[in-house]
């Protein structure tokens, strides 16, 4: 991946995700993994983890390097549903050069508690060439006027705090309530995006293009998903089409932000 494209992926998507999709922490963990193992792994705060468990994880990290991996393994056995413990175990293993075991721990983090920031960070660490987090759904409106729009904003809020399963549920409910609304259908498709299985989202979003040929939200989010997927030429094409549908709308301005980030990278 060229430096120009990498800048677009990081800067452009971060600029787009206004409101809080947490990119900084995962970028920090990536850089630390490449550094000297004399420093302990960073602690990745997770509001879904019980405070007492989070403190035990912190204590294990403070013991670095003596006993950290062993203590985290014990915690993982005692807390089989904790993504935070497995995320930090994976980081500790990566810091000691056990990359295969680290990847296995991160997969477990995603499996046992997928609706958590730790699971999202774990997926990021397994896919370091992609933008951090998952593609955000960007509403075309600022304030909801219908129950469907309220659900869409609620789903977007769940995305911002890295709760992808909760977000997907809200988007799916919105789509069921408004099966002919391109925005609700687009949100439902975006909510399906997974770095391991991106086809699930594209298979839902792609057919919306001929069905709603002038729906700015469809083109915009297709371009956004293509950035995460790594198909940069097609992403630019879709974002230009989205901008052309209304350059002064909320989505038009965001499409322009991404395109300009790509030009300056």
Helix tally equals 15
Strand content: under 5%
Series of secondary-structure elements, N-terminal to C-terminal: HHHHHHHHHHHHHHH
Question: What integer is the average pLDDT?
Answer: 89
Short description:
The protein is mostly helical and 265 residues long. It contains 15 helices and no strands.
Summarize the structure in words.
This protein is an all-alpha fold. 66% of the residues lie in helices and 0% in strands. It contains 15 helices and no strands. Helix 8 packs antiparallel against helix 9 (164-177), helix 10 (182-190) runs antiparallel to helix 11 and helix 10 (182-190) packs parallel to helix 13 (216-229). The longest helix is centred in the last third of the chain and has 15 residues, at 250-264. The model is unreliable at 18-25 (pLDDT under 50).
Describe the protein's topology.
Blueprint: H1 3-16, H2 24-33, H3 51-62, H4 68-78, H5 83-95, H6 99-112, H7 117-126, H8 147-160, H9 164-177, H10 182-190, H11 199-205, H12 208-211, H13 216-229, H14 232-244, H15 250-264
Helix pairs in contact: 1-15, 3-4, 3-5, 4-5, 5-6, 5-7, 6-7, 8-9, 9-10, 10-11, 10-13, 13-14, 14-15
């Amino acid at each position: 991946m060229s430096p120009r494209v990498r800048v677009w992926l990081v800067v452009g998507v971060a600029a787009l995700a206004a409101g809080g999709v947490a990119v900084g922490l995962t970028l920090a963990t990536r850089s630390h993994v490449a550094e000297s193992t004399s420093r302990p792994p960073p602690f990745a705060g997770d509001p879904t983890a019980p405070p007492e468990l989070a403190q035990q994880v912190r204590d294990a990290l403070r013991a670095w390097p003596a006993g950290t991996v062993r203590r985290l393994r014990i915690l993982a056995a005692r807390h089989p549903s904790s993504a935070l413990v497995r995320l930090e175990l994976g980081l500790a293993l990566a810091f000691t050069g056990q990359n295969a075991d680290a990847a296995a721990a991160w997969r477990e983090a995603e499996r046992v508690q997928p609706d958590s920031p730790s699971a999202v960070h774990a997926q990021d660490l397994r896919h370091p060439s992609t933008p951090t987090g998952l593609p955000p759904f960007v509403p075309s409106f600022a304030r909801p006027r219908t129950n469907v729009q309220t659900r869409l904003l609620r789903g977007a809020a769940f995305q911002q705090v890295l709760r992808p399963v909760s977000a997907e549920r809200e988007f799916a409910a919105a789509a069921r309530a408004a099966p002919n609304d391109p925005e609700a259908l687009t949100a439902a498709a975006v909510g399906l995006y997974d770095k391991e299985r991106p086809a699930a989202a594209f298979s839902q979003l792609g057919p919306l293009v001929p069905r709603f040929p002038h729906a700015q939200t469809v083109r915009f989010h297709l371009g956004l998903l293509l950035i995460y997927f790594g198909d940069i030429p097609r992403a630019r094409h879709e974002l230009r089409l989205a901008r052309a549908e209304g350059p002064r709308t909320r989505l038009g301005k965001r499409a322009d932000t991404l395109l300009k980030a790509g030009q300056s990278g």
